[in-house]
Amino acid sequence: MLIVSRKDAESIEIRPSEGIDPNTTLAELFETGPIEIKVFSSSGKRVKMGVQAPTQLTIWRKSPAAG
Question: Sign of the CA dihedral 8, 34, 14, 1?
Answer without folding.
Answer: positive
